[in-house]
Structures are given as structure tokens and as C-alpha cells.
Amino acid sequence: MTSMAVVEHPGLLPGSLGAARRHPRRTTRDWLVDSFCFLVSIGWVLVATLDAASPSPTLAERLPYAWMIPADALVGLALSATLWVRRRWPLGLALVTLPLSAFSMAAVAATVIIYFTLVVHRRTAVALAITAASWVPNMLFALLRPEPGHSYWNTTLWGMLLSLLVLAWGMFVRARRQLVVSLRERAERAEAEQQLRMAQARQLERTRIAREMHDVLAHRISLLSLHAGALEFRPDAAPDEVARAAGVIRSSAHAALQDLREVIGVLRAEASLAEDPERPQPTLDDLPALVAESRAAGVRVELGDRVTEAERLPEVVGRSVYRIVQEGLTNARKHAAGAAVSVELAGRPGDGLTVEIRNRRPVGEAAGAAIPGSGTGLIGVAERVDLAGGRLAYGRDDSGDFRLAAWLPWPAT
Question: Which residues form a coiled coil (predicted)?
Fold first, then answer.
């Protein structure tokens, strides 16, 4: 099988990579490539026909019958026309051209193009089988149309060598396209995975912010409810007490609105998710202010701090302790109004940090209606402690007091 230059469209391959797109819509590049291949094949038919029709002393040996010249030209033109559909039926066209290649010189260009298309778009086993089968008509071609000045075996070996070159060229193009398709798929997969990771990170960050704001807003709103209930319970209170309670309600409402505004702004923002929320997060140093705020609301709170080297406590642990105490105080105001609350902190580097909030027996009924709760506060605390690698216990003890206790790891270094 004779070889010549062929340019193919570098689209997706059939088989394992491109079976779903074996017959894609013809693009502008496809039209240009097909037009070029058709013109090359027509040009070769013209050259081969003129060469066969030219006077030559060996013409009688090469073409013993004159009618073979126009017949060969018709075969070449017919195969040239099939080049427009060679991508759809490369195997069928290759099988049709095998017997024709035993005697047709005008069809050589079209045959090589079809053969190259087969190698590029079909499995290697199919290409090797067609290559081996093409050697039979190649041997017959050297008998039917011998080349002047060349022996039979010389012509046959050159045909086999050129078919192997076309096979190697087509397999190289096929491997290159497979590599390009594989790299494209890997890039698309990596981009999709990156978008998925970003979406998951965004969801996790928003969930974390929502939990943080649940703790903050629950604390603020419980203070509002407590003071409003006191005003409702004692409408005849002194003006200065009413003014003081109203001031606390106003400041708590303002702080709650500010917290809510911040969380909505963060949830709407598309900023980097790797950064913490802009608002500074509370730590262990903010616990006295939290306790003082509860005392100002009328809650009896005792704080016992037996933490050694508190300045070495990691901020993450301190933030978790703050949230645990905040949730404990909020629950005490909701479910044990009027009861005294004790907060005990103890720990040192290497031993961990222990925090315990205990509600003593209520000494009176709650003023007004009970504060509704979402029921997720302790669940959030449990998740926070679990993520930190600590332990959490809560519930009624033997004395009937409600106890919320947590142990958090505190590395020595």
C-alpha cells in the first residue's frame, strides 16, 4: 500500500474515549481537511491517468489492455468521493479498497487516506489486521502493474514498508489524541472537584458561623426575655429599676441586631472561606464579661477560676470554653430561672482544661412565660467538644442539680 501525506482532524477518538461521539457534527476544520484530502486524491487520479496514457515503450507491459486506463480513473474518482464519509465507515471502506488496490494506481491516494483514517479511529487490533490483509493485494499489484527498472520483490517490499510507515504514523496520531483527551478530561475533573470542594467549604463555613451565632443570639435574647419578664412581673417597680432594665433591654437588643446583621453579611459574602469571620472571636479572657452580663440581668453566678498558665491556652480551646459557658448560662436562664449558677474552670498545660456549669435547685418560679428553645444548643456543644477531641457530660446528678461538664485537651507544648 503506497503512502502519501495526509492531514486528519484532531477530534475525539472512537472506542474507549470517543465512542459516544463517533459521528460528531462536521466542523469548519473538518470541511477544510476533507476538502484538502479530496483535492489531493483527485490530483493523484489525474497524474496517474496521464502517466498511464503517455507513450512509453513499456506501456504494453504495464497495461496490456487500453480500457484499463479509463476504468482505473473511474475507480480512483469513486474512491475519492468516498473520502467525504470515511470518518463514519472507515472499516467498511478499507475492506472495499483492499481488492481494488491490487490493480488500481489512480486509487492509491484515496486508499492511503482511508487506511490512515482507519488506524486513527479504530482499535489497534483492527488496524493490524487490515495492514496484514493489505499485503496480499500489494503482492498482486507488483505482478499486475510492475514498475520498470524494479524487481518484483523490491516493489513488494517497498509497498509493505510504506504501509507500515502509515500504520506507525496513524498510531502516533491516535496516541497523541488520546493523551490530549485524557488531559482535557483530567483538567475538567479537577476543576469540577475544586468547585465541589469550594461549595463544601462554603457550606461548612456557613454552618459554623450559624452555630456561632446561635450561641450568641440565644444568650442575647434570653437576657431580653429575662428583663422583659421582670418588668411584666413587677409593673410597680421603682422608676430607676425600670429605667435600668429598659437600658439593659435596649443594649441587648442593639447587640443582638448587630450580631444578626454581621452573620447575614458573612453568609452573603463571597470572600475567601479560609479566613475567620471578621468579628474577633471570644476567648477565655472574655468569660468575666460574660458572667458580669448575666449578673447584670439578675442571675446569681459564681465563677471559680483555677486555670494555671492561662496565657498559654490555645485560642481554639478558649473559644470552645466560652461557648460552653455561654450555652450553660443560657440554659440556666431558660429552664431554671431564679436558680444560682456556678461556673468552675480548672486545668493546666498537659492535663487538659475542665469546665463545669451547675444549676442549683430553683428557688422560685420563672417570671412570665418560659423562654422557647430550639433544642440544638447542647447538640452544638457536643459537636464542638467532639471536634476538639474532648469529652462532654450533662444531666441531673444525684443531688438533683443540672450539671454540664466538659474536658478539653490542652497540649503541654
Answer: 173-207
Burial class (CB in 10 A: 0-12, 13-18, 19+), 372: exposed
How far apart CA 296 and CA 316 sit, in angstroms, is 28
Q: Which of 9, 16, 76, 67 is nearest to 45 (CA)?
A: 76
Q: Read off the DSSP letter of residue 30.
A: H
- Please count the other Cβ atoms lying within 10 Å of the Cβ belonging to residue 219: 24
Does 17 have pLDDT greater than 60?
A: no
Q: Where are the domains of the chain?
A: 19-192, 282-413
Determine the pLDDT at residue 275: 46
Residue 133's identity, in one-letter code, is A
On whether the CB atoms of residues 139 and 29 are closer than 8 A, the answer is no
What band does 258 get if pLDDT is binned at 50, 70 and 90? confident
Per residue in 82-93, pLDDT tens?
888 888 888 888
State the average pLDDT over residues 136-149. 68
**431580653: which residue's cell?**
224
pLDDT of residue 13 exceeding 70, the answer is no
Q: Under a CB-based contact definition with an 8 Å cutoff, are residues 97 and 103 in contact?
A: no
CA 304 from centre of chain: 49
**Distance (Å, whole) CA 38 – CA 73:** 15
Strands 352-359, 391-396: pairing kind:
unpaired
Please state, in angstroms and as integers, the Cα–Cα distance from residue 7 to each residue in 44, 173, 175, 398, following that order: 16, 10, 16, 88
Query: Taking the chain, what is the end-to-end CA distance rounded to the nearest angstrom?
Result: 78
Closest by alpha carbon to 393, among 324, 329, 338? 324
